[in-house]
Amino acid sequence: MKLLKIALTFAVASATCFAGAQETVQVSGSTTVLPVMQKISESFMKTHPGVTVELSGGGSGNGIKALVDGLTMVAMSSRQIKSGEAKLAQSKNVQPHEIAVAVDAIVPVVNPENPVKNVSVEQLREIFKGKIENWKELGGEDKEIVLVSRDTSSGTYETWESLVMKKQRITPRALLQASNGAVVQVISKNPNAIGYVGIGYLGSKIKALQIDGVDATTETVLTKKWPLSRELYLYTNGTPSGETKKLIDYSLSSEGQRLVKEAGFIPNKK
């Protein structure tokens, strides 16, 4: 399976450079959390000119693996760490420390040309199992449904599998994508496609579907009216310290949470 790697290294350029050593904080993992940490990292580096944040995607599972293998200081994940991952970490003297940085909704999306507006969780399950194959079964046009899913290294895939599929298998004919952005691109170009993305990826190129007449909004997510919600996490090896702690603290500060909202996600109220 091909793994799309998104590598984004942000450096703050300044006319007045100081002579001290540059500190680096490596952050990798979930492509859902990526735009949140991109905004936070860019802002953080402006106020901390001695620190460079190296930010890369690759999926929640790969981020956690990089933390366990000592290849990253912070793992971004759109799901909680699995028991097997935690046991492997402990065997390598890594102590995963969990920080909830934001709240997200997973939203089923279609092409804006698609007339279908509303589905149920049960219908979504049947669609992604391959049992509902034509849009006319959902009140749409007589067109074959094109399925777009995240790949298995994705925390978004695993959350969808848990909340929608109830551990039932997604049909093998689904087109697997390595990032939320890739899902958006495929659906924006195919009037018959359906997929799912984090709420921060909604935009004019795709159309969000209602679930049982409910729109995905901050209010419906926080009041649990939207059935597909989750927290977004950062993981460090033990309690963060040094420049890593400064980045984490900034992420949870009022300014950091304002940037979470600016990125299209929901601030963590805890």
Q: Could you explain how this protein is built, in words?
A:
- The protein is of the alpha/beta class and 270 residues long.
- It has two domains: 7-103 and 231-267, Periplasmic binding protein-like II (D-Maltodextrin-Binding Protein, domain 2, 3-Layer(aba) Sandwich), CATH 3.40.190; 104-222, D-Maltodextrin-Binding Protein, domain 2 (3-Layer(aba) Sandwich), CATH 3.40.190.
- It is 31% helix and 25% strand.
- The chain contains nine helices and 13 strands.
- Strands 1, 2, 3, 4, 5, 7, 8, 9, 10, 12 and 13 form an eleven-stranded mixed β-sheet that branches. The protein has a two-stranded parallel ribbon with strand order 6-11.
- The longest helix has 14 residues, at 34-47.
- The protein is globular and about 60 Å long.
Mean pLDDT: 91
Order of helices and strands: EEHEHEHEEHEHEHEEEHEHHE
Helix content: 25-40%
The oligomeric state is single chain
Keywords:
single chain; 270 residues; alpha/beta; D-Maltodextrin-Binding Protein, domain 2; 11-stranded mixed sheet; two-stranded parallel sheet; 9 helices; globular; disordered N terminus
What is the gist of this entry?
This protein is α/β, with parallel strands linked by helices and 270 residues long. It has helices spanning 34-47, 60-68, 83-91, 121-129, 155-163, 180-188, 218-222, 242-252, 254-262; strands spanning 7-10, 23-29, 51-56, 74-77, 96-110, 118-119, 146-150, 175-177, 193-198, 207-208, 210-211, 229-237, 266-267.
